[in-house]
Amino acid sequence: MNEKTDSELKQGIILKRQLTLPNDIKTIPQLSEFIEEIGEELAMEMSTIMSLNLALEEAVVNVMEYAYAPGTYGEVYLEVTANETSIEFIISDSGIPFDPTKKEEVDTTLSADERPIGGLGIHLVREIMDSVSYKYIDNKNILTLSKKIK
């Protein structure tokens, strides 16, 4: 899986990894370990690795908790691609269609009591990542998160 194709070499791709998790939050430590390994391989600063880990955990836990009906098994797929200057995470699932990018920005000027419940996870993801986009293709939710790393 670490072999680079000719097109990947032309695009400057230096890392490509995949992880599949069941929709069970007990597997989140596997996600954290996966992100840490990638960060170390790319020689990222620990603060960057921790930020990426937090954003990915928020996004993946949301999929685990809301994409599939309660008691229904489903999977969350994560594909990671990096070049010298940026890293991209593609999170996909076959669950209920949901576009988190349509969620309104959270008004952080309001007190916690005044704010509506929810929305802080996607807010956090938007704050950490440089770009967040969503598509629904072939019965799959596809959330793409990108971050400049150098």
Molecular structure report:
The structure is a single chain. Helix 2 (28-41) packs antiparallel against helix 3 and helix 3 (46-66) packs antiparallel against helix 4. The protein has helices at residues 6-11, 28-41, 46-66, 120-128, and strands at residues 15-22, 75-82, 86-93, 131-137, 140-148. Strands 1-2-3-5-4 form a five-stranded antiparallel sheet. The chain is of the alpha+beta class and 150 residues long. It starts with 5 loop residues before the first helix and ends with a strand. The protein is built from four helices and five strands. Strand 4 and strand 5 form a beta hairpin. The model is unreliable at 106-119 (pLDDT under 50).
Give Rg in angstroms: 16 Å
Overall average pLDDT: 86
Q: What is the total tally of β strands?
A: 5
So how many helices?
4
Pairing-aware structural class of the strands and helices? alpha+beta
Counting copies of identical and different chains, the oligomeric state is single chain
Helix residue percentage: 25-40%
Q: Give the strand content.
A: 25-35%
First-to-last CA distance: 25 Å
Strand order of the largest sheet: 1-2-3-5-4
